[in-house]
Write a structure and sequence with these properties.
With about 70 residues, the protein is mostly helical. The protein is about 65% helix and about 0% strand. This is Transposase.
């Protein structure tokens, strides 16, 4: 999706100090939310397009949402 690429470039330019893995998780979560209709932690985790188990995908979203470095 072109809009996701634009968003990623904008975040990289505006927040150059953001950790690459954190940015990757944020972009993946954003794609999932845009493609889906539900906005709960577990629904986002279950819908993630990853090769991991559902448990690990939900945990990834939980860590992302609880990350204090994104709340600044």
């Amino acid at each position: 999706m072109r809009d996701i690429q634009i968003l990623q470039q904008t975040i990289e330019n505006q927040c150059p100090e953001i950790h690459k893995k954190r940015l990757s998780s944020l972009i993946l979560a954003t794609k999932t939310v845009l493609d889906g209709s539900d906005l709960t932690l577990t629904k986002i985790g279950r819908a993630l397009d990853t090769d991991t188990t559902v448990k690990h995908a939900i945990k990834r979203i939980d860590r992302l949402l609880g990350n204090r470095n994104l709340h600044r």
